[in-house]
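Hi everyone, sorry if this is the wrong subforum. Our group has a chain we'd like a structural model of before ordering constructs, and none of us has done structure prediction before. Sequence below.
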Amino acid sequence: MPKDKNKLPKLPRKTKAQKERALEILSELYKYYPNPHCELDHRNPFELLIATILSAQCTDVRVNKTTPALFETYPTPELMKDAPLEELEELVRSTGFYRNKAKSLKETSQILVEEFDGKVPQNMNDLLKLRGAARKTANVVLGNAFGINVGVVVDTHVKRFSNRFGLTKEKKNTNKIEKDLMALFPRESWTDLSHLMIHHGRGPCKARISEAPDHPLCKNYGINCECQKMREDE
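Answer:
Right subforum, don't worry. Here is the predicted structure as tokens:
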């Protein structure tokens, strides 16, 4: 029997009450952000993979300004693997760390062509073979390009939301935070979940806030939320 390349890791145990609270938060998130979606512009799995690699230490807005020219010149892995490195560097310079990112784009494209017939693989194990594609990138691609929920994307917004809303006790380790979220929320919601948390984190519950936002989600569930603490100090 072939090994399941999308097998889930062992998850921590959560109580019924914890899961019920998580479902309430999920329902409220859908209420306020009814159209969760990936903010990276893409037309196919390859473009999403490349855009996600470029998004490391860079905003989605900046990536979306950069990728049109990149994909117009090198729309396929077959073309991108043969691109002059200097030209790739120039095309992605504005995203930061452009030398490493250009190498990742070129090497990833080469692997796609040589090992996967030019197709983006649809499992975690194979995606992790690509340069510049850690688990976060793989989760983005699997969830948004293929509708496969293998994990939860944990970026700075998701990490902050998870702590402020008491969904994890882990402050830094993204793998542990991801497992806590996977254990709390239904698998079919995992891809949406990160988008929902990111929307809230970019909106009313930013990293730095000067005044307590009057948002029901923060007031009702943000037990460790900075805005909650500010409200208590008033």
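For your construct planning: The longest helix spans residues 98-116. The chain is about 60% helix and 0% strand.
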